[in-house]
């Protein structure tokens, strides 16, 4: 009986090491499975269109008006506020400069970004480069 007890005591560090190793591997997996992902919150929506398909405001505040779909769909408007930003490429410009650029270059691809919770334009962007 003394020999069996001695063997059990001698094997104890190996058993403890295996239990510790198994616990170390299982605990992070259990934690990862129980954590919920962060909720996704939509801050902005966007519309891809062309400058000739919209009526741009001449001042702020104003309205950006466009057709939401093909004829005979009704017109849709988004509010352009004092907080709305305008970009030609990477350059930030005023609304007057934005309108002047579009008049001088003709039809441009236009990105319209607006708040998800209300129809307020956050930024308008056309591709190009100011001279």
Describe this structure as you would to a colleague.
- By secondary structure, the chain is an alpha+beta fold.
- It has two domains: 1-35; 44-126, no CATH class.
- The chain contains two helices and seven strands.
- Strands 1, 2, 3, 4, 5, 6 and 7 form a seven-stranded mixed sheet that branches.
- It is elongated, with a radius of gyration of 31 Å.
Considering the chains and any ligands shown, give keywords for the structure.
131 residues; alpha+beta; 7-stranded mixed β-sheet; 7 strands; elongated
Secondary structure layout:
Elements: H1 2-34, E1 44-50, E2 54-55, E3 62-67, E4 75-88, E5 91-93, H2 95-105, E6 109-115, E7 120-126
Parallel strand pairs: 4-7
Antiparallel strand pairs: 1-6, 2-3, 3-4, 4-5, 6-7
Reported for the largest beta sheet, the result is: 7 strands, mixed
Rg computed from alpha carbons, rounded to a whole number of angstroms: 31 Å
Strand content: 35-45%
Structural class, judged by helices and strands?
alpha+beta
Broad shape: elongated
Unreliable stretches (pLDDT < 50, length at least 5) are none
The total strand number stands at 7
The whole-number mean of residue pLDDT values reads: 80
């Amino acid at each position: 009986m003394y020999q069996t007890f001695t063997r059990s005591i001698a094997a104890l560090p190996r058993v403890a090491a295996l239990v510790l190793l198994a616990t170390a591997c299982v605990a992070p997996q259990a934690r990862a499975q129980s954590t919920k992902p962060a909720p996704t919150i939509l801050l902005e929506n966007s519309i891809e269109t062309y400058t000739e398909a919209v009526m741009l405001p001449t001042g702020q505040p104003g309205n950006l008006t466009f057709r939401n779909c093909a004829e005979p769909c009704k017109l849709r408007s988004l509010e352009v506020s004092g907080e709305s930003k305008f970009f030609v490429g990477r350059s930030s410009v005023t609304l007057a400069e934005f309108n002047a650029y579009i008049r001088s270059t003709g039809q441009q691809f236009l990105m319209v970004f607006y708040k998800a919770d209300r129809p307020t334009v956050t930024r308008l962007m056309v591709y190009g480069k100011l001279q």
